[in-house]
Amino acid sequence: MQMSQCIWTSHEMLGPFRFGPSIQRNFSKSIRRSAGDSRSRATSYPSFMAAISTGSTQHAAVSTEDDSTTKTHQPLQVAKRLEKFKTTIFTQMSMLAIKHGAINLGQGFPNFDGPEFVKEAAIQAIKDGKNQYARGYGVPDLNSAVASRFKKDTGLEVDPEKEVTVTSGCTEAIAATMLGLINNSDEVILFAPFYDSYEATLSMAGAKIKCITLRPPDFSVPIDELKSAISKNTRAILINTPHNPTGKMFTREELNVIASLCIENDVLVFTDEVYDKLSFEMDHISMASLPGMYERTVTMNSLGKTFSLTGWKIGWAIAPPHLTWGLRQAHSFLTFATCTPMQYAAAAALRAPESYYEELKRDYGAKKAILVEGLKAVGFKVFPSSGTYFVVVDHTPFGLKDDIAFCEYLIKEIGVVAIPTSVFYLNPEDGKNLVRFTFCKDEGTLRSAVKRMKEKLLLRN
């Protein structure tokens, strides 16, 4: 793909949902069938039904009758900068999973609980009356714990009061960083495929997105393409390592090149490192730890993935004071403060001994082996995953036309959920051959999913 094809302004990103017409039409039909004909169900999920609509937003009010009561529903409304995003693919696939009783290896949250000592710390904080608004940028105990953990991981000493900001999950850290540090029409470079909130929050910030596509089998960074993408208007490069959805980890060589380009061109780096403790084949390297990079880097992380507590939504951003100022300004008007008792529990979690992280990695390594070996046995082409709890595969051996069609077939006929990766690209064609599975499930669930695929999908190959 030429670079010109992958440069979008926030205005240009206002078109329909990224699926092509035929893909969107077929997928929408299947979800409408899955949602059923019940009026009560349709009206219970307005955002979901809006997301799967193949036409433009209706401008006439829709009336439905429920016994003797007549209800008038106004057309759904959304700002144009968010019009294209609608309901996420995760919601859509989860709805189909429920309808068909499928095993959900799509959405990336564990089906098991976090450690008892962390939950007990939360309970104790509640009992101790730590239930009112927290300080806007975090309770001191958690700020200190984040700084201490960061020093252990990177060797960098940061000021917990001036350089650590606690947020409502890493997703809010991302939003606060974009909204607080990106100006209208600033260029930001993303690596596709990418976590879906990146594009949405950059759209809200009015940024101009430049997209560098990472391609299988190793999803390595095309250095020459990256160099040509940087211009005098480039404000930041956004990196996710370990990388969702591919499981790629940026190598030291790749990070060094990116660092030198940023220093040479006075570009910031926003780095999403929520999977830093789930690195398998190589050590995680934080961009901020490279020479000359801390002063131009915002490092974002969270509690949820490492401690299997995704519902707590405790995240943080680490940055030098001159960058912290902007992201804290945005944070103040997004959430202001994060759940108080959970912050105290998060501090306890981050002080866990190193043995916890070692056991976590062993446990996920065993889960990964079950899924990867099963997928290979079924006939998928499985790409290497060095980190995260995701695996990306090529589904084309099974003869379905694209990732949407394959995932739909997998749910309905096999009873297993995967995520189509085309939704993680500016150009969906780049991801149409790939789907993503997660192994953040208990071993019994993973074995059951593999068994279903061996019994039904293997016959198709």
TrEMBL record:
Keywords recorded for this protein, A-Z: Aminotransferase, Pyridoxal phosphate, Transferase
Domain Aminotransferase class I/classII large: start-end pairs: 103-452
Pfam families assigned: Aminotran_1_2
Superkingdom of origin organism: Eukaryota
MF terms (GO), sorted A to Z: kynurenine-oxoglutarate transaminase activity; pyridoxal phosphate binding
CDD domains: AAT_like
InterPro entries: Aminotransferase_I/II_large, Kynurenine-oxoglutarate_AT, PyrdxlP-dep_Trfase, PyrdxlP-dep_Trfase_major, PyrdxlP-dep_Trfase_small
One cellular component term from this protein's GO annotations in UniProt: cytoplasm
Necessary cofactors: pyridoxal 5'-phosphate
PANTHER family: FI04487P (PTHR43807)
This protein's name: Aminotransferase class I/classII large domain-containing protein
Organism (species): Nyssa sinensis
